[in-house]
User: What shape does this take?
Amino acid sequence: MKYSLNENVKSITKEDNILLYNPVKSSWIKTKQKNVDKLQRLINSDLKTLNKEDRYLLDYLERYDIISDLDNKTDIEADSPISIYFFLTKKCNLECSFCSMNSNPNIDSSNNLSFDEIKEFIDQLSDFNIKRIILTGGEPLLHDKLIKIIEYIKEKLGTKVIVSTNGFLLSEQFCKDIKGKVDRIDISWESIYGEYKEMRDQFIKNIDVAKKNKINMNFSYVVTKNNREYIYEYIDYCVLYDAGIDLKIVSPINNGNDYDDLILQEEDVLDLYESVFEYIIEKNYVNSPCLKSIIGYTPKPKLGCSGYYKNMFAIYPNGDVFPCHSVNSSEYSLTNIKENSFEDCVKLFGKKRNTFSVFNIDDREYCKECDIRNFCLGVCAGEIYKDIESGSIKPSTCKFRSIIVNYFLWEHKKNISFKEQLNNIILKIREAKSCVKL
Ligand SMILES: C[S@@+](CC[C@H](N)C(=O)[O-])C[C@H]1O[C@@H](n2cnc3c(N)ncnc32)[C@H](O)[C@@H]1O
Ligand code: SF4
Ligand code: SF4
Assistant: This one.
């Protein structure tokens, strides 16, 4: 038996530390540079002559896929669980100016999948390892068969179901209907701080109804230049309702919109996170578990975003299937579920994936030289796929992403408190801001 350094292993160095990682296996280890020489020696030596400690080191490296046993090479990509983003309708009761789906109340739904076609599709999923199904849109609560679809998924697959909604159609009856069937509802808050301010009381009333019915909620907020000042009140609400928090920096992924007055610049993103983290500390929200996901990053090296892997599929209202929920132009279409089975669709993905360069981080013009690219994975492919050239432009979240990734790779200690984490990241943001100013 002989070992060799795994061919996919790459490294990043910082001072006298080195990080060895395998983006194919999504594993990594951190060690001192001097140990790499020792490692090289160990690999080349006769294993029978090694002492217990050295053998332990080799076992450890093998476990993390840094080295492999030449006699026992494993497959490159194991089948992982699949998330399905099911866009039930493009129609919406609102018409948000930034909407990535261009949804509005006047969308023609005549070409949408029928309930029978949806059931047939759900039946096909039972042959796969489905991690969760996210029912979205448009506004999924406008779909007249929503409850029946949820019930059918639970009955046939028993998988996790999440409903993504703008919250305006939540009612007592709806909450009763979904109780025990839906694992979570994700509610978008930004509209009451923008174009739909006048509907705020109704919105809060609906959230109260969901809370009273003990529905598990996650809140999200798409941050634009126009609504960033209200984010603090949104954080108060997350704490008040004990709901998971998600900040999304607005992406320019709506076809017809001019995003110039909405899009945040790099410094805006740094200022935003600095003040949000300060606010959480100032208000003593650091003990609210629901806010922890605001950082929510676990380093895992990969070759690309979810669209690169066989673990996310988006089904559009007419049955078109895409490898990502944010990328929906015809060249990325895999098939239509009215014409092909889901199994065929997964096979087609395998054949086409190498032509979808937008998901592969090594093919992103701006990111391809960045040393932490396999940990960061760049901005959402949806932001750049229509104009691949724009992949060469620095994303507004780049600096912030780099701070978070580097912090978790090199400085984070497992047992420190959430408050300490926030303070450490605030310091990193301030450092970055002072460098920009110099
Ligand atoms: C398209 S909506 C559909 C579900 C539902 N109607 C809602 O608004 O929550 C899904 C999610 O995408 C977010 N979203 C819409 N346009 C976006 C954009 N341009 N950038 C980032 N997120 C966006 C919404 O805020 C929402 O959280
Ligand atoms: S509520 Fe959601 S789907 Fe409707 S327009 Fe706004 S972002 Fe788009
Ligand atoms: S840190 Fe910036 S350059 Fe590096 S991969 Fe992320 S977005 Fe791209």
In short: Residues 71-76 have pLDDT under 50 and may be disordered. The chain has twelve helices and 14 strands. Residues 92, 94-96, 99, 101, 103, 137-139, 166, 188 surround iron/sulfur cluster (ligand 2) (CB under 6 Å).
